[in-house]
């Protein structure tokens, strides 16, 4: 249940709150939610998922715990919205890079490269995601972001590979196996980079792209 505190941290019962236009209140709420999410990212990345308390997140955001409770039903919802916000930013960045690209070779290069480019400038987000994916569990004790949560990504990559096969660019192979393998390669690329911060992420992305292009492309002599 939400408290009777407005997004600015003041009581929601005063006349000034009533006089605030709905559009302005909506914008204030959006900004406040983003501020809290950014604070959650910073705290989780710095302290780890288990030690990141709502009190610490509130302190980092410069608000009270009551303000967080106004915007989020609990830590679970805050974490889920945090993951969504990170992926929305990443998705928009990758989509802008992929716009106008044609052919599987170009798609592979831009897809892997743009994901690496985005995360290279968002190391704190990457660290927070790693903590969340490793430790955030459902009420049943299962990982909240396990293999099943990647289904949408697998399906999209499968479609790209199938279209490449239909165009004759790619050889015959199991598109699900290749999609899962590509995503595993990307995940491991970031895991290695987090452990070895001086590792050349851009060069790693290029090598990964070449690896999967050579593994999937149709034989130049017309054989698959």
CATH topology of the largest domain: Tetracycline Repressor, domain 2
Mean pLDDT: 88
What is the gyration radius calculated from CA atoms? 21 Å
Output the CATH homologous superfamily of the largest domain: Tetracycline Repressor, domain 2
For the terminal residues, how far apart are their CA atoms? 59 Å
Q: Flag low-confidence runs.
A: 1-17
Briefly, what CATH class of the largest domain?
A: Mainly Alpha
Integer count of domains? 2
SS summary, helix count: 10
- Tell me, what's the shape? elongated
**What is the makeup of the main sheet?**
none
The CATH architecture term of the largest domain is Orthogonal Bundle
What is the tally of beta strands?
0
Helicity level: 55-70%
Share of residues in strands: under 5%
Secondary-structure element string:
HHHHHHHHHH
The helix-and-strand class reads mainly alpha
